Amino acid sequence: MEIGLDDVDDLCTGAAFLGAGGGGDPHIGGLMVKEQLRAGRRIEILDPDHLGEDSLIIPTAMMGAPTVLLEKIPSGEEPIEALRRVEEALGRKADATMPTEVGGINSTIPLYVGARLGIPVVDADGQGRAFPELQMETFAINGVPGTPMGIADEKGDSACLTTDDHHRMEWVARGITIRFGGTAYFANYPMSGAQVKRASVKHTLTLARAIGGIIRNARGRGGNPFEELERFIATTSYGVARRIYSGKIVDLDRQTKEGFTLGTVTIDPDTGFGPPCRIKFQNENLVAWAGDEPLAVVPDIIAILDAETAVPITNETLRFGQRVVVMAVGVPEIMRSPAALRQFGPAAFGLEEEYTPLSG
Amino acid sequence: MEIGLDDVDDLCTGAAFLGAGGGGDPHIGGLMVKEQLRAGRRIEILDPDHLGEDSLIIPTAMMGAPTVLLEKIPSGEEPIEALRRVEEALGRKADATMPTEVGGINSTIPLYVGARLGIPVVDADGQGRAFPELQMETFAINGVPGTPMGIADEKGDSACLTTDDHHRMEWVARGITIRFGGTAYFANYPMSGAQVKRASVKHTLTLARAIGGIIRNARGRGGNPFEELERFIATTSYGVARRIYSGKIVDLDRQTKEGFTLGTVTIDPDTGFGPPCRIKFQNENLVAWAGDEPLAVVPDIIAILDAETAVPITNETLRFGQRVVVMAVGVPEIMRSPAALRQFGPAAFGLEEEYTPLSG
To answer: To the nearest whole number, what is the mean pLDDT of chain A?
Structure first.
């Protein structure tokens, strides 16, 4: 299967939806991919179930603060250089790349890398959504070493990091990212095809494209994109999607700190009565409360959507006065195991909320 | 020439003297070297003028806050791993190692590496003293690229950094060091023998050993080590050494911050009258004032010595009530060029003082 010019916008929209407010601006990545397609390059998408057991797959992505990404546009060489650093460390070329997460720019970076290097992109990722930290990966939970990790910036600087600890990989790479200016591009968790089959959340690129298509089509037909999203997601491994709040943004506390975009957004209800909704984020939305009552919590996806069009709003573009619908989405079973919840459940973010999977 | 067990203490003492208060605790490095010698390993010292033009020399050292080094003892594998990362990046084994600076632990790390790997150590360095930042090297001034740079910690984590900018190498490596816990071990500025001959401050290991010997012997004989140091240094490329103050430490502001040991020490005069002496340091002593009048400034060496024994006191072991003599020492000509002063003169540290070379 190939990704064509007509697919890119849908894929970006769907990736921003699954990205839970994070993952970085989807338009920048979309433009990078379109430029490659217009130059005649091709992007082949591979079903993970069809991977050769011994193939080498090197995921590629961007890390840092999405607020910084808006002002520090990539040159395009960074993810290529990051991947090359891993290839050099392994003494072997990648047979394919893939996303580390679904979300904004991080669904498109691997497409760009695939186009540039002429290698296919695997239709799977390691988060089934976006999470803010590198170790929050189904790859990690399933025993895949995180390093050698390549990391590069737009000035041509790069590093190849080695550690046997997933959290220290995140800690040191985040330090490098801060010193690189707040964003960086990386390649890590190099895997065999056998490992991808066992350790990834599958078919998330095509899922993102489908979600983007629903949002675009419902708008064109004057349909209700929220209802259509809920119906469609109920048929997928994510199981359930549900509107949990709608209203107007009345307060926004957003800082760029420690290499992340951190903050809380407050939404007053459409109805004019009842408690306001607060959503706390570390790049991605972590928890939504109505008053003191949790409405949804990680790892479930909390997406803030434009109230008219259902187009997802990433956290760096939230602003006062926006009318929004908040939608929560369940996650696939591989992301709800005890090991998974230790890696990216509420406690991993210092939240006191219990995780109760979203119900329909 | 070989370094034997009897040489190590003198070398450590002299390195601490030339280290201008920085360079890290000399005893830790001395113990590491003695352990190697007692295990039967040998340390061969090579005159830089006898190096083969095409030999590969990879300098090795420790970086970070000397205050942290006291509590975070090296495992010994760190500098070996750092050097290996550079060898891997270059696809070639080192023919020798050498110090990046003279000072405390950083004169002994290359001796340890040489003993462990069975390679000689070049009798030269890139600072002729110790400086706090990586780009403050005669190597840099003379066109030697700083990277590939290997950097490693005691947990087995490591990185190999590539950049074409000396200051960004420092900036990113310092960030990694902070995330590694405040100290790290590194290998950088890989050089040919031809480059070492052109770009280094020569014979500084043997100079450190000679200085340490003078301090030890004068003590034994009841001589005046300060006078003997001044007389001896006048015969070297450093040209001049002079006592600039003596008194008692009455105030000490010392913080571990941004990966450095930063602060100011204040000394009241022996004589009981006249202005106190303040010495400002960033790992190393940068400037000494009597009242508002500068007595000495970087790149000249400012050493704080025990008033009885002339044993140098490194800044992490300064304490209230110590009776000290402050000695200033000139630097060789290669360190006083306009390019050298841009790299490590007063302005490079944000100081407003003009550099006037110390006179006798």
So the answer is: 95
| ipTM, 2 dp | 0.88
Q: pLDDT tens digits, residue range B168-209? A: 999 999 999 999 999 999 999 999 999 999 999 999 999 999
pLDDT at A311: 95
A181: DSSP letter? T
A246 and A308 assigned to the same domain = yes
| Inter-chain residue contact B165 with A175, CB threshold 8 Å | no
Same domain, A190 and A249: no
Residues B140 and B275 in one domain: no
Mutate which of A179, A180, A186, A258 to disrupt the B interface (most B C-beta within 10 Å)? A179
A116 with A246, same domain?
A: no
Domain count, chain A: 2
The DSSP 8-state label assigned to residue A125 in this structure reads E
B304 versus A223: the higher-pLDDT residue is B304
Chain B positions contacting chain A at CB under 8 Å are 155-165, 168, 171-172, 174-176, 178-180
Is A198 in contact with A137 (CB distance < 8 Å)? no
Number of residues that make up chain A: 360
Range of the domain at A185: 5-202
Out of B156, B159, B164, name the one closest to residue A160 (CB). B159
Q: Within a domain: residue B207?
A: no
Interface residue of B81, B171, B176 to substitute, partner A, most A CBs within 10 Å: B176
Question: SS3 for B60-98, per residue?
Answer: EEEEECHHHHCCCCCCCHHHHHHHHHHHHHHCCCCCEEC
Backbone dihedral angles phi then psi of residue A163, each to the nearest 5 degrees: -160, 155
Instruction: Give residue ranges of A with CB < 8 Å to any B CB.
Output: 155-165, 168, 171-172, 174-176, 178-180
Give every residue of chain B whose pLDDT is below 50, as ranges: none
Q: Is residue B17 part of a domain?
A: yes
Q: What is the pTM of this model?
A: 0.91
Residue A73 and residue A163 in one domain: yes
Which residue among B157, B163, B180 sits closest to A157, beta carbon to beta carbon? Answer: B163
Query: pLDDT tens digit string along B158-178?
Result: 999 999 999 999 999 999 999
Q: For residue A219, what pLDDT band results from cuts at 50, 70 and 90?
A: confident
Candidates B156, B163, B179; nearest CB to A164: B156
Please give the structure tokens belonging to residue A55: 């193939």
Give the pLDDT confidence score for residue B356 in this predicted structure: 92
| Residue B342, CA distances (Å) to A23, B237, B299, B347, B358 in order | 42, 21, 11, 7, 18
Which chain A residues have a beta carbon less than 8 Å from that of B64?
A: none
B240 and B159 fall within a common domain:
no
Residue A242 confidence class, pLDDT cut points 50, 70, 90: very high
Task: Compare all CA atoms of chain A with the CA of B161 and give the residue at the minimum distance.
Answer: A159
Shared domain for A241 and A198, answered yes or no, is no
B67 and B163, same domain (yes or no): yes
* A268: helix, strand or coil: strand
